[in-house]
Amino acid sequence: MEKSGNPAFSRLNVTDKAAAGGKTMTEAGTYVKTLLLFVVVIIAAALSWQYVSSAAAGSAIRWLPLWIVSLSTFFLGLTISFNPKLARPLSLVYAVLQGGLLGIISGMFATVYEGIVGQAVFTTLAVFSAVFLGYSLGFLKASGKFARIIITAMLGLVMFELLSWVFSLFSQSTPLVFGYSNYAIIFGVAIVIVAALSLVLDFDFIARASKEKLPKYYEWYGAYGLMVGLIWLYLEILRLLARMAARSQR
Question: pTM for the whole thing?
Answer without folding.
Answer: 0.83
